[in-house]
Amino acid sequence: MLAKLASKHGMHQTMIAQWKQQAIEGMRGTFSGKTVAELWVNPTDVEKLHAKIGERLVEWDF
User: What are the distances in angstroms from CA 35 to CA 21, 25, 49?
Assistant: First the structure.
């Protein structure tokens, strides 16, 4: 199922798996009674996403 989802959206399976793990960790913080959930952002992931957005924009321009 993960492979199908990744293929459909043109991304790697590990990226989706990382997002899933981050979502699960975020939900733990939300439902544990903490007032503020800790936000974690990997700068490398942000760079990869920006590059992917740039690729898509170039594709759409053609």
Answer: 21, 15, 29
Helix, strand, coil content of the chain in percent (nearest 5): 75, 0, 25
Number of domains, the chain: 1
What does each of the 62 residues of the chain score in pLDDT, given as a tens digit?
888 888 888 889 999 999 999 888 878 777 776 655 456 778 888 899 999 999 998 888 76
Angle at 60 between CA 51 and CA 1, to 5 degrees: 65
- Which range marks the domain in which residue 35 is found? 2-61
